[in-house]
Every structure is written in structure tokens, then in C-alpha cells.
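One such shown below:
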Amino acid sequence: AAMRAVLANPACAAKPFSGLDPQVLHSAVKRKEGSRRRWWRIETRDSALILVGWWWGIRRSELVSLRLDQFEPDPDTEVLWLVYRPEANKTNRDDRVGRRCTCDTEVDLVVSTETVEGTDDTGPFRRTTTTHRPRRVQRPGICPLKIICEWIACDWWLDPPAECGHTALVWLKTFLDGLTHAQLNLRIFPPIRNTELASCGPADRDPDDRLDVQMPNRIIRKIAGRHGFGWLSTHSARRGQAHEQRAAGVDIDTLMSDLGWLSEAVARGYFDDLPSERVNDGQTALLALLVDDDGA
């Protein structure tokens, strides 16, 4: 709940935590303002790290290990996939999980759910009928695609995409397709040092250079602390994602697959404290993240 409050803070409602439009950010970075330029880069990287960690429920060790080739944008289906490497995650998963742009999208709001149980010629049955109505929602402040493109444009000295959604996915795919194998192997969230102020992008970056595993906690406490939630950690983002999905009515098997748990007992430890009245069976994982609590 605290993580969602930070993400929904009025100061972040229309923009990522950096509070910067991508075009404004790019212009500021290009001015090469010494320590000021480094500050822009750190703020943008930290914003992207937090939102990626929250949207995919990623553990801190996985966050600092993420490489560019683990992101697969698909403009045709308008999905951004994160591919998990068995050697770089706690449960050796080797699947992929997709997320969509949340700047302007349409979701099916569950209006009513009716369950009928009985017996027919084939035996006992249970049928559930769900009535939906479409709803257009706009949550650019928490869009995972927007902040990833903003950070890559900042880190690689590129012009960011003109808009999010399909345009951003095409931009990201074009960027990734143009990289060499060595460049694709670079960490997406690297350390930012003073020595990089004279360079133009990560051309000379060591692929094994990564953030300390404790840095995600420091980053999230720094930014959350601005809104009164300085006690949060990277684990809070993972727990918050589990709460939001379960509140949306995502079944336990799907939730375990999405967040990479092998044990139901471990998974339940993340959301069993969720009040039953917050669980809306049959809704999509995105719905709870995009629609107000009153379901208006």
C-alpha cells in the first residue's frame, strides 16, 4: 500500500519520479553541466530501477544483474517482455513476463460476476459468468515503457521517442537491434561515476560492472523518503506487486508464474495479509494498478 502511495503521489501523477519530460531531460544532459549532468542521470536511472522493480516484482539481486538483451519489445502486440536468465535469478526461471504501456490504454472493468453450480449429464459443474465494460485509463506516471526509454535515451545520448505506446516500442526495438552482442550484454542499471562525465555514453563500459546489491534498497529509500516512506525496501516493491495482482483477482497459480515463486506457501506469505474485501475475482493484473480503489 505504501509503495502504491508513492507511485500515485500527485508529484508523480503525470511524470516519472525524475519529474522531467524526456525531451527536457535530454536537453539538460546534452549541456554537459558537470555534476548537474551526473545528477540528472542518477535521478533518471533510479526512477527506472524502482518502476522496473515494482512492475516485474524483481528481487534486488536480479535488478542489479539485468542486461539490455533481457528486454524484448514487441510493437505488434504492444508488449514489453522481460526475459529471465536461469543463472541470474534465485529460482532459475527461464521464462519471460510482459508488461504494457500505461500512459493511455483500455482495460475491461469487471461489472459483475455470477457463479452457477449444479449437476448435469456429465456430472457436477461450476460455471462463472463475468460481465465487463471497457474503460480508458491514463497512468503515465507509472508507465514501465516510458521510464525505460527515458533512461536509455539519457544513458546513451539519444533522442527519446516522441510518444509512448507503439512508438516507444518501435524506438526501443530499433535501438536494441542496432547494438552489438557485447553492447547487449551490458547492465541496464550501471553505477554512475564522476569519471563518466567526459564520455558520451557507455561505449567503454565493462559488462561486469554493476551496482552493489545493496544499492536498490538505498535508492528506493531515498526516493520514497521524499514522500514519507523512507522505511521501504526493494522487497516492498515485490510485495506491493503481489498485493496489487491479488487484489485484482489474479489466481494464485498465475501470480506464482508471473513473479517466479515455486512454493505456494512462500507466495501466500506475500499476500495472505491482504483484506478479503480488496480482492476482486476475475479482474486482470493491470486493472488494480490502473483503476481507482472505488472502481469508479
Observations:
- DSSP finds twelve helices and five strands in the chain.
- Confidence is low (pLDDT under 50) at residues 8-20, 28-34, 282-296.
- The longest helix spans residues 35-55.
